[in-house]
Amino acid sequence: MDPVNVFLIDANKLFREGMKRLFENTPFKVMGEAGTLREGVPAVEAAGTQPDLILIDLVNGGEDEADQLRALRDGHPGIRVVILTTDLCTRRLSGALGAGAHGYLMKDIACEALMQSLKLVMMGEKVFPTHLAELLINGRSDELATEVPARRKGLSQREIQILRCLLNGNSNKMIANHLHITEATVKVHLKSLLRKINASNRTQAAIWALNNGIGDQPAEAAGVSASVV
Question: What's domain 4-128's architecture?
Answer without folding.
Answer: 3-Layer(aba) Sandwich (3.40)
